[in-house]
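explain this:
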Amino acid sequence: AQYHKQAPVYEATFKLGGYGDTGRFPDQRTVDVRHKGNWALYGVADQVVARLKGASRLGVFVRATGTAEADRNQIVYGLDAGVLLTAPFQRKDDAVGLGWGVGAPSGVLARSERMSGQMVQGNEYHLELTYQCQPYAWLLVQPDIQGIIAPSGGVQDASGARVRNEAIFGLHSNVSF
């Protein structure tokens, strides 16, 4: 479900949704047990909070996802938030964004890891900075840098040490004909 508020100054979009899957899923404690079905819910709020000089606007967003099915999901909830500045240099199709998020592991998985003597997963955090540039009507270019703190909640690598933090650099482009 989606509601879009087109206001003269502060437009906003709000979404509520979810998914259901009728498949079979492995238990987080033992691979011998499988569960039928899975689901999650999400909510999104995207709000313009300020109109700045010219075409520039400042917006904020937040997204929350979650499920109570901790016995069949490694991640049981996530939260993402950020800010987006459109037309930062009075170029109406450009935008710069900064986002942050966290994913939390299942308590069932954590108990299973603790009982088996494995390193217990914690939260995974991510940061992202991106700039969307449209130099021509037919070309969009978007460089991106992401930082992942405690990937997969700090699981072990092949040597038995915690997986190190990561930096990811990306470049997205779109050409329209």
Remarks:
- The chain has a mean pLDDT of 93.
